[in-house]
Design goal:
- The complex is a heterotrimer of chains A (about 130), B (about 375) and C (about 350).
- Chain A has about 130 residues and is mainly beta.
- Chain B has 2 domains: about 140 residues, Thiolase/Chalcone synthase (Peroxisomal Thiolase, Chain A, domain 1), CATH 3.40.47; about 230 residues, 3-Layer(aba) Sandwich (Peroxisomal Thiolase, Chain A, domain 1).
- Chain B is about 35% helix and about 20% strand.
- Chain B contains 13 helices and 11 strands.
- The longest helix of chain B is centred in the first third of the chain and has 16 residues.
- Chains in contact: A-B, A-C.
C-alpha cells in the first residue's frame, strides 16, 4: 500500500475515530460525509472505546498472498460498544473459543507490511476481553 | 421504451484455457452469439469484466473487444460491477435497445483469471470487497460468505449438510453441461471432507477460478421475426446496490440488494416468485445460493437450507435452481457469469438444453451478484 | 517540586516458549540451562507484534492510570534495540496512536537494554526542568537471539511505559534521585544490517554487567547516603535469573528486596523493557512510603539508577489497568520451536 493510503486514515486506524450524525444519531466507522440513514451532513467526531463483541466470524485458511504466512487466522465482524461495526482479525485465541457474542477488546497490531523494505501498516485486531 | 428480446447466445467451454488470451476467449463466444443470431455487424456492445487489469494486465476492454471482433468505430463500453459485471452489461444492452438508440447490441462478459497465481487471484477478487476496511484485515471472499454462513446457521439452524446439498445438486446439473469447467458429480460427504477454505466453507462450497466468456445479442422484440431463430423476451430487469462492506449491514443473513433488484424485476414483469419455472442464481458459494433463494422470495427466510436438502431446487423440484450447474460446477469467470446465466435461460426457454432441459419452461429469472452483495442484477425472461 | 511517575503500564505478548523446547532442538541440556540461568520460559511476540505495538499498548495502560489528556504529553521517548525501522521513528507512531501529536517532542533511544530507562530519565529531566508538563518514556523490545546461541533462551518481548509529571495529586511515585554510570565496554553489539546480535560470552559478566551495575548503585548510594536496607524493593536489569541475584548479593540487597520485580524466570529478558517491567510489577504491590531502587543495564555499557518513593495514589491507580503479573499469566499459549521459528522470522521464505 502506498504510504499516503494508510497515512490519511491514521485517525481511524490508530485512534478508532468515528462520527455520529448530528441529525439522527447514527454512528459511522470510518466517518462519512453523508449519513446513509437521514442524508444528514453534519457529524460529531469521537474516538471509540476499544471494546465490543463478535457478531459473526470465520477462520481464513486460504488467504491472499499478502497474508500467506499468517494463515490460519480468525476474522470477525465486531460490533463496537459505541455502535459502529467493523471487520477485524481475532487473535490470541483458540478458534473454537470464538463465538457470536464473545466480548473482545481491540489491541494495536501490525496489519501488513510492504515486503521487507516497505512501510508497515498498523491498526487494531480483536483479542478476547478478559479481566 | 421498446420491448427487447435475446435473439442469439454464445459460450465456449470454460476452464483453465492456457492457450487463450482474454480477447481470444471473448471473441470466440461473441462470434458464437452473432452466428446464433445471424448477424455480423453490431450497433453497439457492452463488455462486462471485473478486473482485467489485475487479472490480465489489460484495461480499456471496450475498445479491445470491438477491435478484435471486427466492429469498427462502434460504441463499445466496458461495464464493471465486480462479479455482477456481466449481468449489468446485459441490462445496459437491454436499456440501449429499449431506448431506441441501437437495434442490434451485443452484451458480453469475460474474465481471464488463471494467468496469475491463486493468492494474487484471491487478492484481485477481494478488491470487490471494501479493500480499506475489510480486505486489509486479510478477509477473503470465501471469508465474507463464511461469515454470512455462520450468522445464517446461528439464526436459522442451517446445517453444514444443507450447504453441501447445494454443491451436490449443482455439480449433478453441471455434469450434463458440456461447457462446465467441473462437470464431475460429487457427494455430500465429499463436500464436507474437502479442504477447508474459510470455516465452515470448504473448497467444494466455493466456485472456482475460471477463464471464460459468454455473449448474447439483444434486439427490439418486434424485430425478432426477422431472425432465423426463436427470440426470448426480456420482461423484467432490476439492479440495486448495498453497502460495500458486509459489516455495515444490519442483517447479515439476507441480501437486501438481491431483494430490491428482484422487486424491480417482479414489478416490471408482473411476475412473482411463484411464476418462475426455474432460476439461475449467483452461487459463488453454497451459502450464497441459499441466501439468494430466500432473498428472491422463492423460500421463506431460513427455509433455503431445508429446501436444498429436500430437493426442492433440483431439476425436478418445485423451483429448479441453476440447471446449468451454476457458478459452482460451470465455473465463475467473474465478468462472464451474468451473461452465461442469460445463455442458459435462453437455451432452456428455446428447449435447447439437452439432458438438463426443464420441461415446459416458459418464465425464468437470472440473478447476478457483485461482491458480498454490494450489487445485484436480476432479469426475468419469457418465451415469445 | 516533586517530579515522578504519574502513570505506568505494561504489555506482554501472550505466547511463551519453554527452555526445554529450545534446548531439545539444539541438543542442549535443559536442566543445566534452567539452573545456570534461572530461566523457565520466555515471551514470544506474534508476527503482528513489534516494539511499536507493544509500546502503544503499554502507553495506553500508563495513560489509563494517569487519567490525563494525552495532548498534555510534551515528549514521547521509545527505548528499544528492536525498532521496526532503521530509519523512521517508533515514537511518532506511538505518539499518534495515543493522541499526543503534534505538540510534542519525540525521539527513539537505543543503548542495548538500557534504552527504556533512558527514555524515563530524559522525560523526567524535561519535566523537572519545567520544559514540558508530562513526558512519556517507554522501554520495549522484541529482541532476537541467534538460533542455538545462549541468548536464544532469554531474548524475549515486552514493554513498560511511564508518564512523568509534577502534579502532586497524580503522583504514583516520586523520583528522588538519579545516577548514571557508563564506560566504553563492548560486551554485546549488533552491527548495521545484521539480523542477530553478537556478544563477548563471559566478558558480558564481570567486566561488563557486574562492574557497571555495582558501580552505578554504589555511586547512587554514595551520592544519597542511602543504604540497601533503606529500600523496600530493588529492581536490577535481568538478562537471566542469576545476574540480578548476584548483583543484589554483591551490593548487599536481599533476595526478598529483588524478588517482586524479578520477572525474568517466567518472562525472559525483555531488553529495554526488562528493569522497567520489573518496576511496574513492584508498583503493582508497593505501599505508599515504600522506597524503590531501579538499576538498568545496557551493554556497551552503562546503567541508569533511580530512587522512587511510592505515593498514596498508587493503590487507586494500579487498579486502572492490567497488573504486570496478571499479564504474565493471562491467556498464555505455549508454542513449539517450529512455530517460534516462524514467528521470529527465523525461517527463510521464498523471495516475493
Amino acid at each position: 500500500m502506498p504510504p499516503a493510503r494508510s497515512w490519511r486514515t491514521y485517525p481511524q486506524g490508530y485512534m478508532l475515530e468515528a462520527a455520529r450524525c448530528k441529525k439522527c444519531g447514527k454512528t459511522f466507522f470510518p466517518p462519512r460525509l453523508v449519513c446513509n440513514k437521514c442524508q444528514g451532513r453534519e457529524f460529531e467526531r469521537f474516538n471509540m472505546q476499544r471494546t465490543g463483541k463478535v457478531v459473526t466470524h470465520t477462520v481464513i485458511r486460504t488467504p491472499s498472498d499478502e497474508f500467506s504466512g499468517e494463515a490460519p487466522f480468525a476474522v470477525g465482524v465486531i460490533e463496537m460498544d459505541d455502535g459502529p461495526r467493523l471487520t477485524s482479525q481475532i487473535v490470541d485465541v483458540s478458534f473454537d473459543e470464538v463465538k457470536i457474542g464473545m466480548p473482545v477488546k481491540l489491541e494495536f497490531r501490525r496489519l501488513s507490511s510492504e515486503g521487507d523494505a516497505g512501510i508497515i501498516n498498523y491498526g487494531h485486531k480483536a483479542v478476547p476481553a478478559r479481566t | 421504451m421498446r420491448d427487447v428480446a435475446v435473439i442469439g447466445v454464445g459460450m465456449q467451454k470454460w476452464g483453465e484455457l492456457w492457450a487463450k488470451s482474454t480477447r481470444d476467449i471473448f471473441v470466440e463466444s461473441a462470434l458464437l452469439a452473432m452466428d446464433d443470431a445471424g448477424v455480423d455487424t453490431l450497433g453497439a456492445m457492452y463488455v462486462g469484466s471485473m478486473a482485467p487489469g489485475l487479472f490480465a494486465d489489460q484495461e480499456h476492454l471496450g475498445s479491445v473487444m470491438a477491435d478484435y471482433l471486427g466492429q469498427k468505430l462502434i460504441p463499445s463500453t466496458r461495464v464493471e460491477s465486480a462479479c455482477a459485471s456481466g449481468g449489468l452489461a446485459f441490462r445496459l444492452a437491454c436499456m440501449d435497445v429499449a431506448s431506441g438508440m441501437h437495434d442490434v447490441v451485443l452484451a458480453g462478459g469475460v474474465e481471464k483469471m488463471t494467468d496469475i497465481g491463486g493468492g494474487d487471484a484471491t487478492h484481485a477478487l477481494a478488491s470487490a470487497a471494501d479493500m480499506k476496511w475489510e480486505a486489509v484485515h486479510g478477509v477473503t471472499f470465501p471469508g465474507l460468505y463464511a461469515m454470512m454462513a455462520v450468522a445464517h446457521m446461528a439464526k436459522y439452524g442451517t446445517t453444514r449438510e444443507q450447504l453441501a446439498h447445494v454443491a451436490v445438486k449443482n455439480h449433478y446439473n453441471g455434469s450434463m453441461n458440456s461447457r462446465a469447467q467441473f462437470p464431475m458429480k460429487i457427494t455430500v460427504e465429499g463436500v464436507i471432507n474437502s479442504v477447508k477454505v474459510a470455516d465452515p466453507l470448504n473448497i467444494l462450497d466455493c466456485s472456482p477460478i475460471t477463464d471464460g466468456a459468454a455473449a448474447a445479442i439483444v434486439v427490439p422484440a418486434d424485430m425478432v421475426k426477422d431472425f432465423k431463430k426463436a427470440g426470448v423476451k426480456v420482461i423484467g430487469t432490476g439492479h440495486a446496490t448495498d453497502t460495500i462492506a458486509l459489516h455495515d449491514r444490519e442483517d447479515l443473513t439476507t441480501l437486501a440488494a438481491v431483494s430490491a433488484s428482484a422487486e424491480q424485476a417482479y414489478k416490471m414483469s408482473g411476475k412473482g416468485p411463484r411464476d418462475l419455472d426455474f432460476v439461475e442464481v449467483h452461487d459463488c458459494f453454497t451459502i450464497a445460493e441459499i441466501i439468494v433463494s430466500e432473498s428472491l422470495g422463492l423460500f421463506e427466510r431460513g427455509k433455503g437450507g431445508p429446501a436444498a436438502e429436500a430437493g426442492d431446487t433440483g431439476l425436478e423440484g418445485r423451483t429448479p435452481i441453476n440447471p446449468s450447474g451454476g457458478l459452482k460446477s460451470k465455473g465463475h469467470p467473474v465478468g462472464a457469469t451474468g451473461v452465461a446465466q442469460i445463455v442458459e435461460i435462453t437455451e432452456q426457454l428455446r428447449g435447447e438444453a439437452g439432458k438438463r432441459q426443464i420441461k415446459n419452461a416458459r418464465v425464468a429469472l437470472a440473478q447476478n451478484m457483485g461482491g458480498s452483495g454490494g450489487s445485484s442484477v436480476v432479469h426475468i425472461l419469457e418465451v415469445m | 517540586m516533586a517530579v515522578g511517575i504519574i502513570g505506568y503500564g505494561a504489555h506482554i505478548p501472550r505466547r511463551r516458549i519453554k527452555v526445554e523446547e529450545i534446548a531439545k532442538v539444539w541438543g542442549a541440556d535443559a536442566p543445566s540451562f534452567k539452573k545456570g540461568l534461572e530461566l523457565l520460559q520466555k515471551s514470544v511476540p506474534a508476527l503482528d507484534e513489534d516494539t511499536i505495538t507493544l509500546s502503544v499498548e503499554a502507553a495506553r495502560n500508563a495513560l489509563a492510570r494517569a487519567g490525563i489528556d494525552p495532548k498534555d504529553i510534551g515528549a514521547v521517548y521509545i527505548g528499544s534495540e528492536s525498532h521496526p525501522y532503521a530509519v523512521k521513528p517508533s515514537g511518532t507512531t506511538v505518539a499518534e496512536a495515543i493522541g499526543a501529536t503534534p505538540d510534542c517532542h519525540c525521539a527513539d533511544f537505543e543503548f542495548a537494554c538500557k534504552a527504556g530507562s533512558e527514555g524515563m530519565f530524559v522525560a523526567y529531566g524535561l519535566v523537572k526542568a519545567g520544559l514540558i508538563k508530562y513526558g512519556l518514556g517507554v522501554g520495549a523490545d522484541t529482541s532476537q537471539g541467534a538460533p542455538g546461541d545462549a541468548l536464544e533462551y532469554s531474548a524475549a518481548a515486552g514493554a513498560a511505559a511511564f508518564i512523568m509529571g509534577a502534579d502532586d495529586n497524580l503522583m504514583i511515585a516520586t523520583i528522588d534521585e538519579t545516577y548514571a554510570f557508563m564506560t566504553d565496554t563492548p560486551d554485546f553489539w549488533r552491527r548495521e544490517h545484521q539480523f542477530y546480535p553478537s556478544h563477548g560470552g563471559r566478558f558480558t559478566g564481570e567486566p561488563a554487567y557486574f562492574r557497571t551495575v555495582t558501580g552505578a548503585v554504589t555511586g547512587l548510594l554514595d551520592k544519597t547516603g542511602l543504604k540497601p536496607g533503606d529500600f523496600k524493593y530493588a529492581v536490577f536489569h535481568q538478562p537471566n535469573g542469576k545476574f540480578p541475584k548476584r548483583a543484589a548479593k554483591l551490593l548487599g540487597f536481599s533476595f526478598e528486596q529483588i524478588e517482586v520485580g524479578r520477572l525474568v524466570p517466567l518472562l525472559g529478558n525483555t531488553y529495554s523493557g526488562s528493569s522497567p517491567l520489573g518496576l511496574t510489577a513492584v508498583l503493582d504491590v508497593a505501599d505508599p512510603g515504600d522506597r524503590i531502587l531501579m538499576c538498568s543495564y545496557g551493554s556497551g555499557a552503562g546503567s541508569d539508577v533511580f530512587v522512587f518513593t511510592v505515593g498514596d495514589r498508587v493503590r487507586k491507580a494500579r487498579e486502572m489497568a492490567p497488573k504486570t503479573r496478571w499479564l504474565l499469566d493471562e491467556n498464555v499459549k505455549y508454542v513449539e520451536y517450529g512455530e517460534y521459528a516462524k514467528l521470529r522470522r527465523k525461517i527463510r521464505l521464498a523471495e516475493k
